[in-house]
Amino acid sequence: QGLSAGAAVTAVLLLARSLRVTTKFTSALEIPAEFVEKNVKLRGKLHHVTEKGLEVEHIPISIPFITAIQRKWQSEGLLLIRLAGVEMAPSGTAWLQRELSPQQPLWFQLLGREGSALECLVLVNKGRFLSLCLNEELLSQGLGRAARIEGLPHESRLYWKLHKRLLRAELKAWKKNKGIWKEEKKSERIRGNISSSKLVQRLKEFVSWFRGSR
């Protein structure tokens, strides 16, 4: 009897675990806090790119018998995913809309949750064995600025590991004058030239005043 009870408990625990990994999440609030804390990586399919972020359909792990039952009562909905650690420029949104195809498969690693939005690292496949991190790619193209990674403890090892990667990508764009950095450096040069012109004008006025006062 003891063995039977133990086997029953094990079966229940395995079923509960299976239900969690096969559940289709349709809103950020449905995702267990444990998943976010452990930075679980989930699979999804892109539907829309908006100014607020990526609207993604979660694609859970499929286990034939359990998945067939769950589909009967699971609701429909899309997750709002933001690229963690990236302050995206308008040109970044346009780039994502251009580069990502509808129904694009992707993976998103949970880093934090803020209201109805998820802060994530987003990966898309490029070829058979390569994947591209959209967070880093946007920064390396000069389509945004590195920012604080919301949701991760600021003192954690993972935070600084990821933040370092994002800063390195941003520096790459800055060195090559890409995207927003090209425009910013151009503006700085213009401001510098204007300041120099004002200084020259002030010097001329001073010389004229000095000569007139003699």
UniProtKB/TrEMBL annotation:
<dbReference type="InterPro" id="IPR035437">
    <property type="entry name" value="SNase_OB-fold_sf"/>
</dbReference>
<protein>
    <submittedName>
        <fullName>CC033 protein</fullName>
    </submittedName>
</protein>
<dbReference type="InterPro" id="IPR042421">
    <property type="entry name" value="C3orf33-like"/>
</dbReference>
<keyword id="KW-0732">Signal</keyword>
<feature type="signal peptide">
    <location>
        <begin position="1"/>
        <end position="28"/>
    </location>
</feature>
<dbReference type="GO" id="GO:0005615">
    <property type="term" value="C:extracellular space"/>
</dbReference>
